[in-house]
Amino acid sequence: MSSEFESYEQDFAVLTADITGRIAKVPKLVGDEKKQMVANVEKQLEEARELLEQMELEVREIPPQSRGMYSNRMRSSMTERRSSVLGKGLEKQMQTWGRVPGF
Questions:
Q1: Which secondary-structure segment (H or E) carries 74?
Q2: For the domain that residue 87 is a member of, what is the CATH number?
Q3: Where is the Vesicle transport v-SNARE N-terminal domain (predicted)?
């Protein structure tokens, strides 16, 4: 079980690094390029949420004696997502980028 959790955790770290890099590029883009990048970021954010859900499911399957360690690691990943540009601040950032609702 823990190896699956660790795989999800590693995928999450790689994905969030990629998202962060893409977000940094958005202000330099214009027009359709910007819209496409924002759409890609939104898609990747959904993937990140799904990975966190998978991590949570894996933690539930881990034996109780080991669960605490993995639960803490999962909470840490969730906190990272919430406190970074990947969290609540993304919508505000998208407004700054000139994102048009509904594209």
A1: helix 64-83
A2: 1.20.58.400
A3: 1-77
pLDDT in tens, 26-51: 889 999 998 899 899 889 989 988 99
Confidence (pTM): 0.74
Residue 102 within any structural domain of the chain:
no
- Judge whether 103 and 35 are in contact, CB under 8 Å: yes
What sign for the dihedral angle of Cα 21, 45, 1, 83? positive
Question: 92 to each of 54, 73, 87, 97, how far by Cα in Å?
Answer: 27, 28, 10, 9
Query: How big, in percent rounded to 5, are the helix, strand and coil portions of the chain?
Result: 85, 0, 15
CA distance 74 to 89: 21
